[in-house]
Design goal:
Layout (H helix, E strand, L loop, with lengths): L6 E2 L5 H28 L14 H16 L1 H7 L10 H22 L6 H6 L6 H24 L7 H24 L11 H28 L5 H31 L4 H10 L2 H22 L6 H28 L26 H24 L3 E2 L11
Antiparallel strand pairs: 1-2
Amino acid sequence: MAASITYRELGGPSGRFWSLLALLGVPLVLGAAAYFYVEHYGHIVTGMDNQIVWGMPHVFAVFLVVAATGALNVGMAASVFGKSAYQPLAPLSALVSLALLVGGLALLMLDLGRSDRMIVAVTQLNSQSVFALRVILYDGFMASVGVYLWFLLERRMNRYVKPAAIMAFVWQLLLITGTGLEFGFNFREVYDSILYAPMFIAFSAAYGTAVLVLILFAVCRWEDRPVSDSLLRRLKNLLGISVGASLFFAVLFLSSKYELARSRDVARFLLVDGGVYTALLWLGQFVLGGIAPLALLLRAQVSRAAFAAACALVVLGGLAQMYVTLIGGQAYPQILFPGMIESSSFFDGEIHPYTPSVPEVLLGIGGVALAAAIIAIALRALALLPTRLDQPGEPQA
């Protein structure tokens, strides 16, 4: 951490802060109630079944995990690649990354059922399962980012910030690549593509940057403090490049599916015949999450309101993309015997229906609220915010 930069805790009246926590406590309590309701009655009360085993909570969970890796990009740009303009935001970047990951992992654990037996997955690791190996990736990422944040905050450890940042950067790449390959190595027809690895890296950068900028705007509005145009311009360009890369890899993935004869029906399902999944793909992922934000970000002069709107659209588009990927990928029928006609009582050859239940939605929102509460409490308790962000030219504090 550069010696010229000083940091402080989140300011504002205590009563106002406690009101914020009480507001965040509402979705947290509702999410906890939804979890115990599903745990008591079983997943029969949700929209999930033997075909759709990853429901709406997984949509929120995977989005949070993917955004968590991308939120660290600003800190990595400062500490690994020497982009000093981002240095004031490095502690906030690490905090947001950790909080989003905790929220996502909490949802994954609570949504799988029998969360009390999660210790079995940790103690009896299946080294041949990419799902099981993610436990190592999660642990390594959280530990490396935690050490990186500690070295940023402790002046005596500032000399070791770059080695810690390089370690966090390596785990960041491993985690987001592993998350993408979790789908790419899946035998379901909608998945089964190595392009999921680079595509998820691009998604990560877009979603994480958008969430980080929205939190930065919220903090600055909370304290009524300005942010330099130089820093916002850099963040705008970073988000624009990430959104453009996301669109490129999404188009490349769909084109590859359509060009291969064995997966052309899958491409038609996603692009034309998928009903709600097709609508979410075009209107949600491409229009709201890609084209509209780029139209806002590529203008010569972008107001802060337009920048915030672009970030919000990227988040909404990301949730739509995760819904299409997770739910649509399971709804499309599995081709067990290519070229053969299958018939049984298990909906062979049929697009499987799925309607999210209220408990599923509440649980997903609860995971988001958990991440927000962690960020709010940490910002209030720890000196993570730069004293100033309104210096002209290169942002300094």
